[in-house]
Design brief:
This protein has a four-stranded antiparallel beta sheet, covered by helices on one side. The chain is rod-shaped, with a radius of gyration of 26 Å. It has about 160 residues and is an alpha+beta fold. It has helices spanning about 1-20, 40-55, 80-85, 125-145, 145-150; strands spanning about 30-35, 60, 65-70, 90-100, 105, 120. Helices cover about 40% and strands about 20% of the residues.
């Protein structure tokens, strides 16, 4: 019984190493318009083909306007996209990558006992981010003067400092 659990655990770890972390995937959002989409079958087959190319992606196809929105982990150039559509008798009129917003970077405190410390959040606007952080930091220092003094005090014994 113990041996089978060990092999199952090794199998799961090996599979995870092959697949890699799903949360670290970078997504790309493409928007295109195509000419020649006349049937519901073309729309369905195209949707199925794009969805099968990336199971983590999302596809939206509108036959009436020829609009295609595709969010995928795949990197795509116009010529590659046109090649994928070639067998359906469609021609690409427009193709562009829409900027996909990345989640904000949040730095967490290194010491759990200081969990209420202000955190710097990078939202892409450095001026507002710095102003927000400075205001939260000033309020935290006013509320926790002893902890702030402990954090900023020089180490009294050389060589005993840690990264905490």
């Amino acid at each position: 019984m113990l041996r089978s659990d060990l092999f199952r655990t090794i199998g799961v770890l090996f599979s995870a190493a092959l697949i890699g972390p799903l949360s670290a995937q970078e997504f790309h959002h493409y928007r295109a318009t195509v000419a020649g989409m006349t049937s519901t079958m073309q729309e369905k087959e195209l949707t199925d083909q794009l969805q099968a190319a990336d199971l983590q992606g999302k596809v939206y196809v509108d036959r009436s306007t020829g609009a295609i929105d595709w969010t995928t982990t795949l990197r795509m150039e116009r010529i590659q996209f046109a090649y994928r559509l070639g067998r359906y008798g469609l021609s690409v009129e427009t193709f562009e990558e829409i900027e996909t917003p990345q989640p904000p970077l949040v730095r967490t405190p290194r010491r759990p006992q200081l969990a209420d410390m202000p955190l710097y959040m990078d939202t892409g606007d450095p001026q507002r981010d710095n102003e927000r952080y400075d205001a939260y930091k000033a309020a935290w220092i006013a509320t926790h003067p002893d902890q702030y003094e402990e954090l900023t005090a020089p180490s009294s014994v050389a060589g005993t400092g840690t990264n905490e």
